[in-house]
Design goal:
Blueprint (H helix, E strand, L loop, with lengths): L8 H10 L3 E2 H8 L3 H13 L3 E8 L5 E7 L5 E7 L3 E7 L5 E8 L6 H18 L4 E8 L24 H5 L7 E5 H13 L5 E7 L3 E7 L2 E2 L36 H5 L1 H10 L7 H9 L3 H25 L3 E5 L8 H13 L2 H6 L1 E4 L6 H14 L2 H33 L1
Parallel strand pairs: 4-7, 7-8, 9-12, 12-13
Antiparallel strand pairs: 1-3, 2-3, 4-5, 5-6, 9-10, 10-11
Helix pairs in contact: 2-3, 6-13, 10-11
Length: 415
């Protein structure tokens, strides 16, 4: 797969190696660079430890060809997924593979200090067990962020996050890029790049205590002018209201938006009204798996409402795949079934025939894997690769200068 010319020469080579091991000839062909240029860049990347030789492969009629790949010993990535009711953290290698992860239930978005304290402890455990440097960090939050400032859009109910600096709290774990993003974007990136790589446009619907949506095009999420694109959870539903004796409005304070009438809080409120105590997505899932008919009916009904709400969006965008994920889909496909049935009826026949609605395949690992992808994108950007290579050159120059000084002193001593 050839890379676009807008990338720098070194980032083009690294981009291809992220897809798998390649020979110098293959890199030359796919980048359009000369053989000498590719050779020189590979030498530079080997010198900094980012690239290594994968193995020797004998080609027909010739000598063994060296296959180059990213060097896992170059470092690791720390990743986090902060939800409204949980915190997860993990460690990712240079190939984007999630090697380990931890998680705990926590009203994370109610207390940023407590959430970061948990993440600090988890990150510390991963760092102490890693034998390689931490090259980058990525944290996903359950709210959209302004792409120009990286500031989260928070409601009045979560105003404590407004001036809270995640980078300041956790930035000490790396001197490399620190990425903060929307959790649903990370989940969507992971599903599209790993499970649906041939789909150019993919929509991801996340259903947990809230409702999120992301649309990925050619591997990257579409965020809109100010980062608020596809906030379908807060589309007002005419004539609808949160059900239950104690209504639970969405995080923005509305009780007539999609999240308020079909998200996890709405389901929990309705169940309490019917005499069933379930206040978290885990408790709701446990009851559904146990076969509670009232809970199962509520999950399917929520899926129907969500499907009806996103049908116009599917019609406008015509995505190849719609993926349904989130905590309330982890152990039951009832919400997915409701979305599939309702959205299928709400879109034109032509689009209905071309779109596939499917459950997420990466489960609760998707947010962490996608965060790792975003961190690697930043780590291997043209700008950051220049910094890595420049730092290596400076070290080499310092070493040569030090060696020259030692040689001069030795010569003086002999004189």
């Amino acid at each position: 797969m050839a890379v676009e010319a807008k990338t720098s020469p070194v980032s083009a080579i690294v981009s291809l190696l992220r897809q798998g091991a390649a020979t110098q000839a293959e890199l030359t062909e796919n980048t359009g660079m000369s053989r000498v240029t590719v050779h020189d860049w590979l030498r530079s990347l080997e010198d900094v430890g980012l690239v290594t030789v994968a193995n020797e492969q004998r080609e027909t009629g010739g000598r063994p060809a060296r296959r180059y790949c990213l060097n896992n010993s170059f470092g690791r990535i720390l990743v986090a997924d902060v939800g409204t009711s949980f915190v997860r953290a993990g460690i990712v290698n240079m190939r984007g593979e999630l090697e380990d992860n931890l998680g705990t239930e926590l009203a994370a978005f109610e207390s940023p200090t407590e959430a970061c304290r948990e993440l600090f402890d988890m990150f510390s455990r991963f760092r102490s067990s890693s034998k390689t440097p931490i090259r980058s960090v990525a944290v996903g939050l359950p709210v959209p962020l302004n792409p120009k400032t990286d500031e989260p859009y928070v409601s009045h109910r979560h105003s404590q996050w407004e001036d809270f600096d995640v980078r300041k709290e956790l930035g000490g774990f790396t001197t490399g890029p620190f990425v903060v993003g929307h959790d649903v974007d990370f989940m969507a990136m992971a599903e599209q790049r790993i499970k649906h790589p041939d789909t150019r446009m993919m929509m991801f619907i996340k259903v947990g205590m809230g409702i999120g949506c992301s649309v990925v095009y050619d591997g990257d999420p579409l965020r809109g002018e100010d980062g608020g694109a596809f906030e379908v959870g807060h589309i007002r539903q005419v004539g609808a209201r949160a059900r239950g004796a104690e209504r639970r409005p969405c995080v923005r304070g509305h009780d007539d938006c999609l999240e308020a009438v079909a998200g996890g809080r709405a389901i929990a409120s309705s169940l309490v009204w019917q005499g069933i105590d379930a206040s978290s997505s885990v408790e709701i899932m446990d009851l559904a798996v146990a076969g509670n008919s009232l809970v199962r009916d509520e999950l399917y009904a929520s899926g129907v409402k969500i499907g009806s709400a996103i049908a116009p969006l599917i019609t406008m965008l015509n995505p190849g795949v719609v993926v349904v994920g989130g905590n309330l889909t982890a152990y039951s496909d009832l919400i997915y079934q409701g979305i599939r049935d309702s959205a299928g009826e709400g879109v034109p026949r032509m689009i209905r025939k071309s779109v596939t609605i499917t459950p997420a395949q990466l489960a609760n690992r998707g947010g962490l894997i996608g965060a790792g992808m975003s961190a690697l994108d930043a780590l291997f950007s043209a700008e950051n690769l220049e910094k890595i290579l420049a730092a290596c050159n400076n070290c080499n120059n310092d070493a040569e200068k030090e060696q020259a000084e030692v040689s001069d002193k030795s010569a003086v001593g002999r004189g």
